[in-house]
Amino acid sequence: MAQQTTVTLTDDLDGTKAAETVRFGLDGRSYEIDLNKRNAAALRKALGEFTAAARKVRGGRPAAKPAAAAAPAKVDAKAVREWAAANGITVSARGRIPSDVVEKYEAAAG
User: Least packed by Cβ within 10 Å: which of 13, 31, 41, 97?
Assistant: First the structure.
């Protein structure tokens, strides 16, 4: 048995049958709305004065974000734990070593 699926666009403003999907952008955001012919014309008319005076821009990639600060250099966890034990500082045998202990180790190691 054959099946047929029908998709009907509905005007997002008034619920009537839509004729088209209109795409537009504002403040760096893109929008799309399904509209009948009358509402699509009204939208274009409302924006017409502004689009006539505006500059057209090319689509493209957004501006690059600034690079994140470089991660601190990794330290040898085993060496830090051995140094801490030898200097009476308690650290867990596994897991993250507290930053103040790493700083003390680096200061002592020179």
Answer: 31
